[in-house]
Amino acid sequence: MILVTGGAGFIGANFVLDWLAVNDEPVVNVDKLTYAGNLQNLHSLQGDARHHFVQGDIGDGELIARLLEEHQPRAIVNFAAESHVDRSIHGPEDFIQTNVVGTFRLLEAARHYWAALPDAGKQAFRFLHVSTDEVYGTLKPNDPAFTEDHNYEPNSPYSASKAASDHLVRAWHHTYGMPVLTTNCSNNYGPYHFPEKLIPLMIVNALAGKPLPVYGDGMQVRDWLYVKDHCSAIRRVLDAGTLGETYNVGGWNEKPNIEIVNLVCALLDELRPRPDGQAYREQITYVQDRPGHDRRYAIDARKLERELGWKPAETFETGIRKTVQWYLDNPQWVSAVQTGSYRDWISQQYAQEQKATA
Ligand code: NAD
Ligand code: TYD
């Protein structure tokens, strides 16, 4: 089995769902259930013996050591993190605690577990750390896309904390020989994306008749990857990645924010026209820019394609259509997140899980 951290969040939940859809290897899923963790994302796994959920903190070394001992996973995939740049600007402390201290504690628990494994288990073991392209800093309009050799130049508390975690993972390989892999991915989008991030926020605000807040001039560029393609890249790196290496993951799909927002609006105009017949783009409002806002990210994912044969399956056009449709098809998920009732559901659900595993 494998141990996944942060598997109730956006990417982690998609990863767990896809993992169990493509094979039967069980997953122990450790998630602290912060505001970003939502067990409703994993609702379809209710009663599935292959999924074992544990509410817990990656910074709790004793808990992690106990879970490793009990379940003997062959790999750890670390998604757990504080992930929202704007929140990191308002309150960086949690980012340091989870992304830096938490990753350190997780690495230490993993190292002790790994060191005590018999030779075959030791050789097979993997620690895969999921990271971001934001560690590389910002690009000028004509700069080449980030390769794995790009300097680390993080600019936000979020990206600095992720950069620190990447460095720890690297050091645990060089110093202790830990079998680690790191992936640095561009912006994801898709089902179960918490509506504080650009794409889901625009969808839910548009449908609610609220303003669509575009920061600054809206010309900041991001590379966008459909979340299920990120999950397939992680599976591929876990299977065949070279130990100690990092792999950039991207969608070959750079777009300025305003173009993304206009595309979302156009899809909504087609799929769920406004009752008053107006276009959703009428709701776009330019607001004050984010402090220190990185202007452009772009990912060169050729290493992953060349060495491991991975390519994204979705284009932006197919992925964004599926995503908008998912939000239209799942109004209960959206409203539970908006009203906060997903937190009540989590406590009920968690009580049931506790009973089931007691
Ligand atoms: P998310 O915020 O949606 O989910 C994070 C999950 O981690 C939540 O379920 C939360 O409860 C859990 N968590 C937080 N602190 C924890 C702790 N101390 N112990 C255990 N669990 C904890 O984030 P996401 O968008 O799914 O991102 C997952 C990972 O992928 C992060 O490491 C992030 O840096 C990275 N990443 C995200 C993107 C993106 O576009 N979203 C892109 C590249 C990389
Ligand atoms: P976000 O989804 O927060 O991801 P990140 O900052 O990690 O790239 O933001 C994506 C881009 O969209 C980023 O340039 C900031 C911008 N943005 C807005 O213009 N308005 C918004 O309301 C949000 C949340 C983001």
TrEMBL record:
Its cofactor is NAD(+). Its EC number is 4.2.1.46. It holds the Pfam family GDP_Man_Dehyd. It catalyses: dTDP-alpha-D-glucose = dTDP-4-dehydro-6-deoxy-alpha-D-glucose + H2O. Keywords: Lyase, NAD. NCBIfam families: dTDP_gluc_dehyt (TIGR01181). Belongs to the NAD(P)-dependent epimerase/dehydratase family. dTDP-glucose dehydratase subfamily. This is dTDP-glucose 4,6-dehydratase. It comes from Diaphorobacter ruginosibacter.
